[in-house]
Amino acid sequence: MNQKNSLGIDLCFKDLDNPIDLFGEWFKEAKKNEINDPNALALATASKTGIPSVRMVLLKDFNNDGFVFYTNLNSQKSNEIKSNLNASMCFHWKSLLRQVRITGELSKVTDKDANNYYNSRSYLSKIGAWASNQSSVLKSRDELLNSIEEFKKKYPYDKDIPRPKHWSGWNLTPNEIEFWLDVKDRIHERLLYSKIENNNWEKKLLSP
């Protein structure tokens, strides 16, 4: 029989007051068990008229301030974010039979953080940030490939490639985080953390 925490659910939910700490524990397990990209998440945004869109992005950092990913600031996702800061993230770790959903508000990361992460990227990833007008229509694949070659000529040395002004990161500051565990016969276990005053969190069990 599985061990239970104080709320009567699986011990993997632990007994933590801060959901960021629990996310960190689950993320460590995901990194051990997921074959590819344990930091992959589905990011849902919506236009100013409420039309939703979702895509996969990669988590690059997280702490008590939020969850960070990087992108082109002229992309569809960024343009939607600029007009509607509300967003949602979903991590699904099939190997663990676990899921985490996060909702909150997005804000740009600092230039310092964007520079630090950009400088950690590979040479070709940096070139790609310059060469690709993300989400824009291409006349042909060659248009992109030619742009890459042009920027490789412009910036032949890795250390000399500056971060484009149109490339940075977004931080999702959460107001709710839900942890989900697959259970036999679809009697799943769900734990919801909701932010309350003074940056404290309230815990609630949810029906599957």
The SSE order reads HEEEEHEEHHHEEE
Please estimate the helix content: 25-40%
Largest sheet, described in full?
9 strands, antiparallel
Mean pLDDT over the residues: 96
Instruction: Point out poorly predicted stretches.
Output: none
How is the CATH topology named? Pnp Oxidase, Chain A
Q: Specify the CATH class.
A: Mainly Beta
Q: Strand tally, please?
A: 9
Count of alpha/pi helices: 5
Head-to-tail CA distance between termini: 20 Å
Estimate what percentage of residues fall within beta strands.
25-35%
Overall geometric form: elongated
CATH superfamily: Electron Transport, Fmn-binding Protein, Chain A
The structure class reads alpha+beta
Radius of gyration: 20 Å
Specify the CATH architecture.
Answer: Roll
Q: Total domains, how many?
A: 1
Describe the structure.
By secondary structure, the chain is α+β, with helices and mostly antiparallel strands. The protein is elongated, with a radius of gyration of 20 Å. The protein has a single domain (11-118, 166-206), classed as Electron Transport, Fmn-binding Protein, Chain A (Pnp Oxidase, Chain A, Roll), CATH 2.30.110.10. It contains five helices and nine strands. Strands 1, 2, 3, 4, 5, 6, 7, 8 and 9 form a nine-stranded antiparallel beta sheet that branches.
Topology, element by element:
Blueprint: H1 19-33, E1 40-46, E2 52-58, E3 61-63, E4 66-72, H2 76-83, E5 86-93, E6 98-108, H3 111-120, H4 123-131, H5 141-154, E7 167-181, E8 189-195, E9 201-206
Antiparallel strand pairs: 1-2, 1-5, 3-4, 4-7, 5-6, 6-7, 7-8, 8-9
